[in-house]
């Protein structure tokens, strides 16, 4: 196999491994759910926005 062929094959392997890693690690919409329990949650209402650092990251579910 020529040097160019080896470089092309290596590039294809690297691209395939990268694609598989992206799919397995979280290439989809994904996300995760956080559950918290409060002693007094009177001001938390279902549907309210949840923010971190001033950025909206979700809503209150229950």
Cα-atom radius of gyration = 22 Å
* Total DSSP helices: 1
The secondary-structure class comes to alpha+beta
- Helix-strand pattern, N to C? HEE
Spatial shape: rod-shaped
How many domains comprise the coordinates?
1
Helix proportion: 25-40%
Unreliable residue stretches: none
Percentage of β-strand residues: 5-15%
Mean pLDDT: 84
Strand order of the largest sheet: 1-2
Distance between the termini: 62 Å
- How many β-strands, per DSSP? 2
Largest sheet: 2 strands, antiparallel
Report on this model:
With 62 residues, this protein is an alpha+beta fold. The protein has one domain. It is 37% helix and 15% strand. The protein has one helix spanning 3-25, and strands spanning 49-52, 55-59. The chain has a two-stranded antiparallel ribbon with strand order 1-2. The protein is rod-shaped, with a radius of gyration of 22 Å.
């Amino acid at each position: 196999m020529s040097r160019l062929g080896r470089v092309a094959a290596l590039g294809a392997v690297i691209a395939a491994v990268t694609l598989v890693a992206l799919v397995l690690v979280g290439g989809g919409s994904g996300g995760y759910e956080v559950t918290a329990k409060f002693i007094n949650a009177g001001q938390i209402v279902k549907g309210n926005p949840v923010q971190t650092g001033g950025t909206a990251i979700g809503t209150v579910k229950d």
